């Protein structure tokens, strides 16, 4: 299958693994959108959140806990976890992945985050 993340998982494309378990792996994003930008990826090829089935709940749980642990290890006080879903949702690679974004420490970056904040 012509899938970048399956090829990384199969070591056909060399990449540094930050986490490597039976179910998931994590890598640094090649084109980071934040000072810390990791991708947490299930080993099973599932296209997106829209393609999940009932038996995938364990995978989703492990993606989130892995992201949380990576954030702790990276010393992040706050961070964003993002799933892009479909082209209209900004998804480019059709293999489910969770973005971990963080490491902003400049006030102007935090004040201009792209998502609405309740205190504004
Ligand atoms: P999406 O837009 O599909 O949610 O995110 C795909 C992400 O994968 C993008 O942030 C992009 O920079 C990253 N990416 C694309 N190709 C590669 C690659 O070969 N290696 C790594 N580490 N990241 C990649
Ligand atoms: Zn894949």
List the helices and strands and how they pair.
Layout: H1 4-9, E1 19-20, E2 24-28, E3 36-42, H2 57-73, E4 79-82, E5 98-102, H3 107-111
Antiparallel strand pairs: 1-2, 2-3, 3-5, 4-5
The structure holds guanosine-5'-monophosphate (5GP) and zinc ion.
Could you please describe the fold and organization of this structure?
With 120 residues, the chain is of the alpha+beta class. The chain starts with a helix and ends in a 9-residue tail after the last helix. Helices cover 23% and strands 19% of the residues. The model has no long low-confidence stretch (mean pLDDT 93). A hairpin with a 3-residue loop joins strand 1 and strand 2. It has a 5-stranded antiparallel β-sheet with strand order 1-2-3-5-4, covered by helices on one side. The chain is globular and about 45 Å long. The chain has helices at 4-9, 57-73, 107-111, and strands at residues 19-20, 24-28, 36-42, 79-82, 98-102. It contains 3 helices and 5 strands. The protein binds guanosine-5'-monophosphate and zinc ion. Zinc ion binds at residues 3, 5-6, 45, 95. Residues 3, 5-6, 45, 95 line the site of zinc ion.
End-to-end separation: 46 Å
Catalogue the ligands.
Answer: guanosine-5'-monophosphate, zinc ion
Report the radius of gyration as a whole number of Å: 15 Å
Strand content: 15-25%
Quaternary structure: single chain
Low-pLDDT stretches are none
In terms of structural class, how would the helical and strand content be classed?
A: alpha+beta
Give the topology string: H per helix, E per strand: HEEEHEEH
């Amino acid at each position: 299958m012509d899938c970048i993340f399956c090829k990384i998982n199969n070591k056909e494309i060399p990449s540094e693994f930050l986490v490597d378990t039976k179910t998931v792996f994590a890598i640094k994003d090649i084109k980071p959108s934040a000072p810390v930008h990791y991708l947490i990826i299930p080993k099973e090829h599932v296209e997106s959140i829209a393609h999940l089935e009932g038996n995938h709940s364990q995978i989703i749980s492990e993606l989130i806990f892995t992201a949380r642990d990576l954030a702790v290890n990276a010393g992040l006080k706050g961070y964003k976890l993002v799933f892009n879903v479909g082209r209209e949702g900004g998804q480019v690679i059709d293999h489910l992945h969770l973005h971990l974004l963080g490491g902003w420490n400049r006030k102007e970056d935090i004040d201009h985050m792209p998502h609405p904040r309740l205190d504004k």
